[in-house]
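JOB MANIFEST
job_type = single_chain_structure
chain_count = 1
residues = 366
[input]
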Amino acid sequence: MNRLCAVRGSLIRPAIAGAGAVLCGLLAAGLPVQARTLEYVIDIKNRVPANYSLEIPVQYPGTLSIEANWDCSRILTFKLLSPGKRSRLVRRSGPSPQLLELAIDESDLQGGGYYRLDISSLPAGGEGLGRLRIHLPDSPKVIRERELAALPPEPEIPEPEWWAVPAPPPAGSSAALADLYREVESFRAMVVTGPQDTAPDPCRWQTALLEHLAGIRDRFADGSTTPDEATIRFYRKVAAAVGQVMELRDSEDPILAGPPPEDRRAYNTWLRMRRDRIKTMEHELDVLMDMPKEGYVPELEGEDWPPRLVSCLMACERNFEELGRSGNGTGTNQELADDTWPFIVAAAKALAAVDRLAVPARVRLH
């Protein structure tokens, strides 16, 4: 048991003293790093002057903090003295409660020794019990463990969705099925940029279409089902419309690509011929926009990606048409067209691959 200190007839005794606590010079050998708070009880006698003395072991830099409270009206005086030739003193005096704090650095610990706490009481009326809570500086290991425990947990990186994971064609796949896997994977590699990230998608159709295509690919692979004829027809028309817009974008035909003739009469003829060809293209896009919502493609009812994809394709068509008509280097929807056109082309190739697998005689989209 820890030794008790008696000075002029009064006692200070341990209440919940940690292992290795020191009283009146008892050596603190091997104080465990977990025993960072020491507690003691003070007997306060009625009308009896008293002095209480305690030596405190400090092993690590930090803040030494002492909380004192007692259940009577007596005035107590506290003095906390550091060891060494250049000792420092912290003094408090008054009624309950009281708090003493002393900052300790590495240089304060170099000379060794104990920090001394003296408590004195005048012979006034009132008796009771007091409690001391002495908070010793923690070891660097304990501080580090506490800091780590306070850190928020590392966020869990969710597993990628099944459609976002690369999928090679099954062994023994036909050429058409392997071609579908290759085109869907090409589109997936553009859309999925990381475990939790996808490419910018201003029209918000790419992820939904990727999931749709991956489902079709897997159903073809396991033979569970295939898209119906109306769905295949819609895929085919989307791929053809992308081909028409691609021709508008890349054509060397002066009617589509320009530049506009400078002669007024030649310009009017050129513009009329151009409008006739553009009108046919735009009519096909309008038909594509209406097909799913008017019940012509039952399997795609409720899907968001068809109208969003067609809307994005229309924006690209307007951009390419304006570039050829005006002869300028930029047009309306320029940024949208620059960002989304490669994704539209990759999507059309995947849809065309579905069409070829369902109807092997179909012509490949280039």
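[summary]
The mean pLDDT is 84.
Residues 89 and 159 are 60 Å apart (CA to CA).
exit_status = 0
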